[in-house]
Amino acid sequence: MNANADPAELHKFSELAHRWWDPTSEFKPLHDINPLRLNWIDASSPLAGKRVIDVGCGGGILSESMAAAGATVTGIDLSDKALGVARLHLLESGLKVNYELAAAEEYAERHAGQFDIVTCLEMLEHVPDPASTIAACAKLVRPGGEVYFSTLNRNPKSYLFAIIGAEYVLRLLPRGTHEYARFIKPSELSRACRDAGLDVLDLTGMSYNPFTKVYALGRDTDVNYLVHTRRDG
Q: Where, in this chain's numbering, is S-adenosyl-L-methionine bound (predicted)?
């Protein structure tokens, strides 16, 4: 498969896959921010009754929570190990999610316009061609449907906070989790969305307080940020 993927990135997350659902592991930040991102999506596009695809679903933290909110969820990823963990966790949770090993571009060719909502969170900074992933997400959603992204801004502050702070000082993430050159400025992401036929509706920042150890959504998009878009009707 000629996928838009970096083998080194896939290997990195595959090696950690067995720890995906351990809330004290390297994936603790994902567990901590998941209620925030889930509520943010559900507030603007109520999930109940919607057909949703989670692009780059990994071990299924977001996918499961959207299913619990009443959505019919498909999760796609290129890490077979992560998907194996995601499927095993369904036995524990009792939820229903359709997990498939597939690249976004390839899946979009077969399922164009079939989803009400597309989510692609914490993934764009890990692929060689983010614009290709964004275009695939735009193709997957129906006209008038919603697409959600999240990623990391590229500036000196984000390097200090997301790499030096999170990986080396606070050790919230394993060293080497992120590569600064792959961070994406909001202007770049917005341009790629417009090129793919997506209207940018909202840009929201996510910050972390190292003293209270609490994540919060707000106006500060200097480091982590989320984008809500809608496909042209």
A: 37, 56, 77, 121
Q: What is the 3-state secondary structure (H, E, C) of 27-41?
A: CHHHHHHHHHHHHHH
Q: Is the pLDDT of residue 220 over 80?
A: yes
DSSP state of 186: H
Start-to-end C-alpha separation, the chain: 32
State how far the Cα of 175 lies from the Cα of 64, in Å rounded to an integer.
Answer: 27
CATH 3.40.50.720 fits 7-231, yes or no: no
Report the C-alpha gap between 127 and 130 in whole angstroms.
6
For 202-212, the pLDDT digits (tens) are: 999 999 998 89
Distance CA 64, CA 10 (A): 21
Q: Which residues are annotated as a binding site?
A: 37, 56, 77, 121
> What is the arithmetic mean of pLDDT over 103-121?
98
Judge contact between 99 and 86, C-beta under 8 A: yes
Annotated binding site for S-adenosyl-L-methionine: 37, 56, 77, 121
CA distances from 11 to 64, 122, 143, 216 (A): 23, 16, 35, 30
Gap between the Cα atoms of 94 and 157, Å rounded: 41
For the segment 37-90, what is each residue's pLDDT rounded down to a tens digit? 999 999 999 999 999 999 999 999 999 999 999 999 999 999 999 999 999 999
Which single residue is written with the structure tokens 């933290």?
61
Residue 175 — φ and ψ, nearest 5°?
A: -60, 135
Chain centroid to CA 27: how far? 13
> Which tokens in the block code for residue 17?
């896959």
